[in-house]
Amino acid sequence: MSRRSAVHSFVHDGYELAYEVYGDGPNVVVYMNGLLLDAGINRGIARRLAQVGNRVVLLDLLGHGRSDRPRRAAAHRIDFYARQSIGLLDHLGIERAVLGGVSLGAMAALSAGAQAPERIEALLLEMPVLETAAPFAALLFTPVLLGMTYGGPVARLGTGLMRALPRTGVDALDSFLDAGSMHPEEISSILHGTLMGALGPTEEERKAMDIPTLIIGHDGDPLHPGDDARRLSRQMPNATMVEAYSIAEMRLRPGRLVDEMIRFLDATWMAGSGVSRAG
Length: 279
Known about the structure:
This protein has 279 residues and is of the alpha/beta class. The protein is 45% helix and 17% strand. It is built from 11 helices and 8 strands. The chain has an 8-stranded mixed sheet with strand order 1-2-4-3-5-6-7-8, sandwiched between helices. Helix 9 (226-235) links the parallel strand 7 (213-217) and strand 8. Helix 2 crosses helix 3 (104-115) and helix 4 packs antiparallel against helix 7 (184-196). The chain is globular.
């Protein structure tokens, strides 16, 4: 069931961005949402990490959740999303933090690692989307983009019906329902912007990123193929990969994977400042 933190906001490049905070203390983790989703997809992870002494900040990237939703594709580039995460650190007065996210959020975190490595303690990359996934992503999302762009009343009827559906109180499920309830122009702008831009750092940039990184990937999912996660773990000199049993494990039975995240964060805090989690 939903147990939400209060929603806060800050202004970055003229847009208001929303975020939620779970826990407190100096050990800060910023975790970002997947494509079209919002903070709800990550609240279960945030609550568990906060229970063991981390301060977890869930950022709604521009166009998502309770953040502003410009209907311009040019506003929705992954490198812009990366800058928003660094802007959040500036807003909170945090010099260094762990950055991470799921799918689109993972790519924003990876891009932030290339843009501002001096601000990144470590990276948590869940279900990264890279070269192997690109053809399937185009195949999957291009018809949606065209439907949302040119569908007119039919597209508005579909998203209106999604808005009318009752919410369940289950954060992750409601995040998907809310994604389908967005205005068609909001959906098309995000898809257009993210599909047309670079997915993330180049291979050469990844190989130069000596940031402690935990990558969580899985097989059997062409949008988040395990091959992308494994390749990234080989490219980055300080990366470790943990294989999930399925795309749903982190949201339905997260214990094993979250425990891996906690061990990784413990080691990160100990190596960085001698501070470990409470408890």
